[in-house]
Prior knowledge:
With 229 residues, the chain is of the alpha+beta class. The chain has 9 helices and 8 strands. The strands form 2 sheets. Strands 1, 2, 3 and 4 form a 4-stranded antiparallel beta sheet that branches. Strands 6-7-5-8 form a 4-stranded antiparallel beta sheet, with helices on one face. Strand 1 and strand 2 (69-75) form a beta hairpin. Helix 1 (3-27) crosses helix 2. The longest helix has 25 residues, at 3-27. The radius of gyration is 21 Å and the shape is globular.
Amino acid sequence: MSALDDLARILAERELDVGDLIRQAEEDARADVADTLRRLFADDLLRRAGERLGGRPLVALAGVADGLHPLVLDLEPGDLDDEARLERLVRSHNELLLGALEEGAVVPFRFGTTFPDRAALDAWIDRHRPALAAELERLRGTAEWSVEPVGNVPDVDAAEYLGARLATTVRPGLRERLAAASEDAAGDAYLVARTRQEEFAAAVAALEAEGQELRVTGPWPPYSFARLP
């Protein structure tokens, strides 16, 4: 088998994997949300939280809302080792933040930010009260949107596939145009003010009208933009 045949086989297998993921997301829309959340959460925090549990419960900080109100979850031993329990916790974490976002401002923390007990959490918030209050004001009235370019599969032979796929995935100026309609940008994430939602939506629509296929999710709490103490 030639090198080109090997490349074609590998690429075909990768496309099949992507197709399987897409079909699974269509069968259960929640899987798509869970995937997005897992990409937002840091693996090292999950690992460290698992190590800290050590057979005893912990208090997990999901975020800080208006009034410096902590949004908390209780972690029990085994929660991070059971996929179903972990998914429920991830969803609860995000739902707490979304609820706070609807009511006002929120500073989101990565899943797995833990404290030994509520007293330790309250003491930490007291120590960082000025920084947290300032961050709440900075993020007030904003939300995070994810806009990922989705490349179409090019109809070329294996030798030309990689270059053609890259050319069809991200068009020049895409991120710059979206960033111009937002407050900040980090990769495929954009911090968008409520007062500029229509402007941002128009920028997305214009790109799609030009033939760019985009995967848009949001609004999310501003995970990618929170400046944590």
